[in-house]
Amino acid sequence: MIGLQCPKCLWIMFNEPKNMPEPNENALHRFEEGNIIGELAKKCFPKGVDIPVDDFKKNMDKTKKLVEQRKIMFEGGFLYGEVFSRADVLVPVGKDKWDIIEVKSGARVKNENIEDVSFQKYCYEKCGLKIRKCFLMHVNTRYVKKGKINPKKLMIKEDITGKVNLNLGVEERVNDMLKLIKLKKKPDMTIGRFCKNPYVCTVKGECWSFLPKNHVFNLHRGGEKSEELFGMGVQAIKDIPDHFKLNEKQSIQKKCELGGTHHIDKDKIKKFLNSLEYPLYYMDFETINPAIPLYDGMKPYQRIPFQFSVHIVDKPGGKPKHISFLHDSKQDPRPNFTKELMDALGEKGSVIVYYEAFEKGVLSELAKALPKHRSSIESALKRIEDLIKPFNAFHCYHPDQQGSASIKNVLPAMTGKGYSDMGIGDGATASILFTKVNYGKVTELEKKKVRADLEKYCCLDTEGMIWIINKLREMVE
Question: Does the predicted TM-score (pTM) go above 0.90?
Fold first, then answer.
């Protein structure tokens, strides 16, 4: 899969493994969650035999015996020349055929899954197995937890045989990769959108390090334009030729780059600011969304809020009042979270968020899960104002945003303050570390530190919105 996305990364993996960055906290969490899903999937095959993977030779020997005995097996290893694959599940069918079942923690079949299983089928068939069908077993997002997790209902087995059989040229791609790995010199590679699709490439940081700060790949929705410009030898947005066609937002980016200053549409910003009704409630919250539901009535990947921060400003120039909540038990956080949040938001005044789709989505789910709070939640939903809108519309833009309207970019661009020195600096890390200290086994010292970092992070999200609003007012006065 690495070789399909980036041959250079594949070469580094085999020839310069020390230059492969270590997986970060988010990647380790995904691996762990995938392993848990894998173990649950095995329970759907009670007669299956688990083959240890810590000893390569023993794994191969055990696989050979189970093939002869025609047993369902987990982690069976097959080696054909320099090609090796280990199957999540292999199921014997009839007298001499087998089904491949690949287990993924995702919620649907993706193109990369087809490539993955195609490689496995190629390897197993070269080793003499007759493959009847290929399946992807993934998480069923319609499953609702009621008591103990039921693996057979949590997982869906989807037939992907047709798509795998239509995916031709696997052997050619494999042989090309084997030749590439043996090259004495690192292959030259261009850069582009493929560096982030379907995954952010492990060595992207190395490959993109030569680019200037505001490079053409930071063009708002640049896509093919960005790649065309880079192919023309243009790296910096400020160097885009005048004859090159840009849309309105991209033109604003170039203008700001050349002038090194803010762009601001004062009339549009004033209209937005005048739409806000005091008291102002600056609101942000954090969620977890585990693949395996934690509580009854919960679905896989459902967002469960565990923390909020609300800053209240009663009047123009008023001193902000801060209210926060951070769940601290293994019980379902939603009842206490919702009650505390609704109390904090009062009954009138604008509720300011950054990217309303997230907050509105979670609040709507809470209204369904907690009917007694539905009325107050629906009232709060009507009061929401989204601070991202003037930045998404480029009514205000600074070169330091680097084409992004995210608060992680807007806050430092507008105020000089940001998340870089925070113990927790993004929502994904907040979710992972909360899960770790709230549901895992950690020391009290570690738990105390993470909770303190969570409080600081969520607080900055709402306090930062106050600073942004104040800066906007200052800019249009």
Answer: yes
